[in-house]
Amino acid sequence: METLQLVGIGLAYVLLGLIVLLLAKLLWDAVTPFQLTSELTEKDNPAVGLSLVGYFLGVIIIFLGAVIGPAPEEMLTTSEIFTMLAVDFGYAVFGIGLLIAGRWTVDKFVLHQFSTVKEIIEDRNVGTGAVECGCSVATALVVAGAVSGESSGAWWMGPVLTVAYFLVGQVTLILFSRFYQWITKYDIHAEIEHDNVAAGTALGLSVVAMGIIVLKALTSDLEGWGETLVWFLLDAGIGFLLVMGLRKITDGLFLPGTTLQHEIAKDQNLNAAWIEGVLAVGIAAIIFFVV
Predict the structure, then answer these.
(1) Least C-beta-crowded within 10 Å: which of 22, 163, 261, 275?
(2) Residue closest to 260 by CA, chosen among 189, 180, 194, 190
């Protein structure tokens, strides 16, 4: 394939990415009960900004999952190029719809003891925004893993499998949030509702780590959806154990003389939350690329 055509297709995908982001913003405005521009610029609401950052990161992740693949080995016709762009655009938009649906999961099942909309809009709760941000990125990783690559069989198998993996990923996210509460001595909902940004940040980053590990199963070279599902569940279990083990390691090696529980719940120490979350994301990334 000639270099000039490769460059042209690359520029077309850059333009397509901008269109996808613009469409994502319009869809956000359509499904949220508040005016985005007003919250961001007039009211300077940091909770909305953080939630939106996670949403846009999720959109970019899904878009990359849809478009990244092996480059064509031969010159493509104009019709083939437009078909390729249209298919990838369709998968990206489909993924954005799933990402928006994932926000409902956060409100009803992850932070289910209060209204996330109220916390973000009325209380400007940055901790809630941090959880929404992390859940959006984690959901996007699962969706991107599902839409990446080529599906064998009928054309409808791709969307069906994407929805199936999305649902399994949402259940995993819900179970992980309950597991996280189980290994945490303080009440996560109460801390976040009382504007503890550290508690929300720690949970949000831990969810991102979980998403990275689950993505590994979806992008592995496996035979059939059944084997993929088995590895999905296995990697999810590894992620659960990873977060629990890292908390012990963090207390002993990175926060000597104190504990994450004390620093986050009592002192509302955002530094401790960053340390916990970044270590979890970092180890998850190592597992993804090395194991």
Answers:
(1) 22
(2) 180
Say whether pLDDT at 227 is over 80.
Answer: no
Average pLDDT over residues 41-60: 94
Tell me how far the alpha carbon of residue 38 is from its chain's centroid.
Answer: 25
Angle between helices 126-147 and 197-218 (to 10 degrees): 0
- What number of CA atoms fall less than 13 Å from residue 27's CA on the CB side? 20
User: What does DSSP assign to residue 183?
Assistant: T
Radius of gyration of the chain from Cα atoms? 20
3-state secondary structure of 249: helix
- The pLDDT assigned to 5 comes to 73
Euclidean distance between CA atoms 106 and 275, whole angstroms: 23
**Pair 290, 216: CB distance under 8 Å:** no
Residue 24 banded pLDDT, cuts 50, 70, 90: very high
Q: What is the pLDDT of residues 268-287, one digit of tens each?
A: 999 999 999 999 999 889 88
Taking residue 278's Cβ as centre, other Cβ atoms within 10 Å add up to 13
Task: Give first-to-last CA distance, the chain, whole Å.
Answer: 34
Token pair recorded at residue 164: 């199936």
Q: 86-97 b/e with 16+ CB inside 10 Å = b?
A: eebbebbbbbbe
**pTM of structure:** 0.90
